[in-house]
Design brief:
Length: 187
Amino acid sequence: MADRTLVAYERADGYDVHYAHDRPDPDRLTPSTPFGGPADRDLDRLQARLDPLDVDLTDGGDRTAVSPLPEATGLTWSEVVATLDYQTYTYCYRIDRAWSVERLLVCHLGLGARGGEERDPVGDGILLPVAAHEREYAHGWFEGTKAATADMVGCGVFGEERAREYMLGRVRSFAGERDCYPRVGAV
């Protein structure tokens, strides 16, 4: 499954947000390659496997790691956080005007897929800043925390709201001194 990533570029008038199907390499998001250059997907290997079936993946265009077409423009950072689809994205990159990349794990707090109540169709959550070396660990840690919390809801230990508060507290504890960005309403 792809690690869908929302990439938010800071501009003079706010943020432009772009979609990346796979998690792009933050070191390749530069002024000379703002969309990460060619996608890392190994389409040549896949194409070789599809040749006997007469399937052609080429589209005549260059594929970049990040879609060059913005999904929205001129948003404040608060609007980016508030409108993010927490059920769809795994990561978010916040790129400032000096091209410094802040890596954020998208922590979706909804438990609907794990037997809880269906909440907001977009989902609610919190963005957790993660260092490059802890990205995979943080993702596994959050998914484990969420699974254990869903089990507690299923056993009647927590109600939905208490489970959500518990997960928010765990994420903030993991973050330590780093600023987390909760979606409006995910206080």
